[in-house]
Each structure stands twice: as structure tokens, then as C-alpha cells.
Amino acid sequence: MPTSLTLKWRRALRRHGEDRSRQDQHFLALLLDAWSNRRPVGPFGFAVSVATGIGAGATGIALQMALRGPASAPFSVQVAVGATAGAIAMIVTRQRFAAQKARQAATTALASSFLDASRDCVKLLDLQGHMLRINDYGATLMEAASPVQLAGADWLGFWKGDDNDLATAAFRSALNGTPASFRGSCTTTTGQPKWWDSQLIPVKDHAGKVVAVVCASLDITSQTQLLQQLRAKSELMSEMEAHVKLVFFSYSANFEYFHYITAGSSNVFGVEPEEFMRNPHVWRDMVVPEDRAALHAEMARIMAESSEGRAQYRIRKTDGSVRWLRSTGYPVLDDKGNVLRIVGITEDVTVEQERIAELDRLAYTDSLTGLANRAALLREIESRCAAGRPFGLMFVDLDRFKVLNDTLGHLAADHLLRNVGSIIRRSLPGDAYVARLGGDEFAVLIGSVVDKAGLETQAKALLGGLSENRLQDSAGAFITASIGISIYPEHGSGHDALLSSADVAMYAAKKTGRNGYQFAGEEAARTIGDFELERDVPEALATNQFFLHFQTIHEPHSLAVHSAEALIRWQHPRRGKISPGDFIPLLEETGFVEDVGVWVLDNALRQLAAWRQAGSMNLGVSVNVSARQLGSEQIVYEVDRALKQFGIPPGKLEIELTETALMKNPKQAQKSIVELKRLGVRIAIDDFGTGYSSLMYLADFEPHTLKIDRHFTSKIEHDPTTQTIVEGVIDLAHKLGIEVIAEGVEEAAQLEILRQVNCDYVQGYLLSMPQAPEGLITPA
């Protein structure tokens, strides 16, 4: 049955449960007083005379009463009861009321200050780990609405997993009388995780028995999160250092020792950071000798100018491998501008350099032969010119390569070029720099031989190498070359002049019969005009420098226009108008005549289509075709294509062939003529009477038209024999069903005679000059 004192405690609990601050003060005051004044108390009576102060709370009660013992001496009794968990601590001390009150006041003040100042989560735990009490700030840290919310809570239940193991171990240690500490994470009342640094202290009675445990926990969530972030960054840096070839460093201002260097040094240099700290110059000894001067110069510049610097260099690692490194240093300055240290980064750029080297190789290497290309040659020439030492330049061009390329096919021609490159290398000194400029053009730089006689010997050796290897085309003809030679500085001080001089000399060698060589000089310079024209033909085609004039062909009596002959002209951007007699033989010789011939055919038929659209439906046009064109199987295809493209009836196109063209390859010429006639195209033999087998051509080729050469027309009025010949040719042609055109009619008397001998058509300056097509033809 409850005693009257117990009932009073319960009433006090109900009466003063709301006074939390006062409860805390009295609770801690009694606790501190008990610890500081522990003394056993003898038997006494339990008559209560005065109740001088009561402080009560939900979890405990403190009573102060005046009692009298057996000797009737007044003494006080202080009782502290933990009611919630059923644990009761009773401490009785004897002292006079005055001393008791003074100490009580001091203790209460100290307790109040302690609670207000503490930023720990302070808890009183019973022997089962339940929370008897928690201070206000601790409740706030645990995100509780008030300390009451946590009263009686299982403190160990807040910890999970490994942290629960740590908390349990520390609590058991405290129960065994030994203070303990641990760090761990538990959730608050809202489920938010927090990290705590907890100290557990056993509370003992006068007999040394543990009756409770005080737990003071410091909230270290912010510090722990910061440490976790730092640890994550550290782990990230470690991973980067392990996989990325980077080294971060802090160097002394004079580059004499390291303040710090990262573990990446083992990846980049193959040297551990500790070795760098012991021997700061270890990395310099690894730099390859040829890169050291530039590296040291850059380091000296950084110190002198207090500015950022960068150096790229190679090192040889202990395993013998060579790596490319790039180091960048940044001076750290004090407030006076003095260098305190150099911080920076070193990275392995070997892969990057290998890629650059590969790009450089591709940029400066001929993909077909593996030789240096034109860009590499120009760079090498400029480098040698800058050095100022004499050297020889050979410009090598294969003879008849365009023909070979067309007849062999591209694959065989490429194989031939690769062989030529190998032969040039083998035929010349080991220090010869061999390059392919493009097409069938090669160049050689020779520094070991610079006199004319020595270079002549090398040129002969090269030509001999080609001859000895007996490279052949599909027809069995041996491959030869023409070589032009220039010497630095005699023939130029840069690549433009030297290559131009050698190029001209090479062209002169071709003019003298091919398979030879020429030095740059006056004799070679005389061929520069032809050389430039040959070189400019592709550009002339691309930029429309060629154009057509037309000379009309007339009926001799009425002078009506029967047709017009297309005549090519060349307006050169630098040399002005170039005579057909100068460039047409060049086109024939170089093979460009086929491309130019197609251009003439297209533009002549385009103009005829324009005239027909304007009303001149009976007008025809004649186009000259060279021996090379006639010998090509493409001629029939191109004519057929052009007729269809421009909508021209085949009978309105006449192909003019010279006797020379017919003599080149009579069999192929006859085949082409037959196919052209099958298309319906007319065939004319130009300059008839100037060749050796003119009458034979009439039988073999059966042309539609003969054009009497101007040589006969010019003499017809003064030379009876010539007149008889012309008259006989006309009669013969008519009997064979062939029409006749007389060229070169410049005098009225000539025209009259041609009328008398029944010439079908006439052409010449008397009737019309070659001129632009605009306004030349008046619609019928």
C-alpha cells in the first residue's frame, strides 16, 4: 500500500508536471549534490515536520523536508526519485538548514548554467538503456517536440546495424563501471540520419554499484559529412591519379626542391613521389639530351619573368621507353610580386604526339609511293636554303606517261610509279632526299654532290637505273625519263626559283629527244614559253581561256553561206592571244588535244544549235580532228554524244582530217571513219595535195569532201600548171561523188577561176575573216 510520502510525490508529479525548466534544475542540482556530498545516514524517524520545497516532473521528483532524528537534532532529507522507469535514488544528508539552503542555491545555479551552456545531447539511461531524462537541447537535436516525447524511449533502438553493435558495446562497458565512447549514426525522431560522438559514464551509488548511465552525445553530422566529402574527393583524386597520367606539383621558386607532388608521378615518370622529395632532380636526368636545353631555358624564363610557362619534352624511363611530356608551371606570387613557389601540372602526351606525328606523316608523305610529297619537298628546300649550304635539285619527269596511263590503266600505272620511286632511291646516294611531286613527276635533293660534273654523274646513274630495270609499258616500250637540274644558290635562293629552273631544264631535255638531262641555263630558258603553255592548258580549260572563231564557207556564184569552220583561239591571261600555230602542236604532243578537242566539238555544236534556232536550218559546221583524237576509240562516242546533246542532225557536222592524221595509224583511222560515217557524219580531208598518198586516201577513206590546200589556191591565177592540177582534182572528185572546197581564197581573180572550174565551195579572207559567232550568220 502506498505510503503518504509516495502519494505526495505522485501529487507533486501531477501538480508540477508543466515546470520543465525548474524540474531540470532541481534534477541536476540534486544529482550534483549527491555526488559531491555522499555520506551514509543513521536510523531516523520519519515524522515529517516541514516540506520546504518541491520540484516535480514527469520523470522524477525532488523533495526537501525537515526531519528530526533520535537525538532531536534537526537535519534535512533530500530525495531524488526517478519515477518513470521505477528506479528510485534516495540520498540523505544531514546538515543544518542554513548550510543546506546555501548549497542548494549554489547547486541549482550551477545546474542551470550547465544545462544552458551544454551543446551536447545529455541523457540519463536506466540499466536497461531506456531514457529517464534528456536535456532540452538534446531533444532539439533529436528533432523531438519536447523531452517528454523521448521519455522512456529505448536508446539502443535508435542505432542500427554496425552502429547498434558499437552502442551496445559502449553501454555494456558503462554498466560494468568503465566509461566508454564511440562514434556512429542514428536517426532522429523524424528519420533524419545524424552522426554522434558519444561518451557513456556510469553513475554509481555509495557502494560503487552502477545505478544509471549518463550519455553525452556531440552532434558531429556536419563534420562527418564534410569528412565524407573530403574522403570522396580524395578517393576521386586517387582514382584519377591511378588512371589519368597527370602529375600535380608544387615546386620551389628556384626549381630546387618539391613542396608536394602527387602519386601520379609513378604513372608518368615511373618514379614514386617519395623519390622526388628525396632527389628533386631525378626527373631532369630522365629528359633526353636533345630536349634539355629548351626545357632549362623555359624554366629560367619562368623565374626571370614570373609568368606562366610551358615546355614539351621527352623522357627516357627506367624501362627504356621514351615518353612525351608536357609541363605547365604557374608562379604563385606574394603581395610584392616575388615568386613564392611554382605550382603546375605535368601530363603524358605521348599518344597526342604520336597522332600529330601520324598526321604530319600523312600531310608530308605521298600515299602511293611512300616518298616525301610536294609539301615536304618545299619544306626541305627552304630548310636547306636557310642553312646556306649548296645542294643540287633534280626534276625528274617520266617520258610519255600520259599515254602510258591511258593504255596501261590506272592500277598498272600506279604500280609503275611505285617501282620508279624505288629505282630512284636505289640509284642515288643514301643522303638523297627523294619526293614525288604528283603524277609522273619526281624531285631529288642531293647535298653531298654540288658541282656540275658530280650532278651529271648522278643524273646518268638515275637514267641508267631506269634502263637497267627495264620497266616496260603494255606495248613493250621501255620507260625513260627526262631530268632538269638546278643548283642552289646558282639558280635560285628559294623553292620557287629552284623548282622553276629545274622544271624548265627538264622540259628542254624532253625537247632534245627525251631520256636525257639538262642543267638550268640559257639554253633551257629558251623553252620556257612552251613549258608555260603546256603547264597552263588545264587551267585554260577550267577558266574558259579558250574560245571559238568561225570562218564561213560559201557557194562561189551566189556567195551564200553553206557552212562555217570552227577555229580554236587562246586568250592567255598573261601572254594575251596565242597563235594556234604555237599551241596546237603542243596540245598534240602532250595529249591535251583530246580534252581540248571535246571542248571544241561541244562548243561548235552548241553554236550551230543557236544558229538553227535563229532560223539558219541549212547551215552546217566543220570541226578539225587531230591524229591523236582519230586514233582514240572515244572519238565516235564523243561525236555521237555531242550530236544528241545539242540536237544536231549528223549530216550537218563535218569532221576535217589532215593527211598527217590519216598517216599516223591508217588502220585505226579507217575504223573510226567508217563508224563516224555510219552515224551520218560527213568526212573531209583537209589540206589535200600536200601529202604523199593523197589519191590512196580517196580510195581507202571515201570522204565526202576534199579541201584544196591554200598552197594551190594562192598560185592558181599566175601558174597554169597549178590551175590544171586544181581543175583535175575537182574533176576527179566529182567523178567520185566528192565535193570540193578551195581554201585560202584572197583575190577576186582566184574566185573567178574557181567558178570556171566548177569548184563547189570557197573559203578565204576575200569572203570572210575568222570571227566571233555573234552577227556572223544572217538567218536565211
TrEMBL record:
Membrane-spanning segments: 44-67, 73-93
Q: Does the keyword Acyltransferase apply?
A: no
Keyword annotations for this protein, in alphabetical order, are: Membrane, Transmembrane, Transmembrane helix
User: Which Pfam family is an annotated match for this chain, by its short name?
Assistant: PAS_3
* Chain ranges of the EAL domain: 530-780
- In which domain of life is the source organism classified? Bacteria
PAC domain: residues covered: 180-232, 309-361
Question: Which positions fall inside the GGDEF domain?
Answer: 389-522
The identity of this protein, by name, is GGDEF domain-containing protein
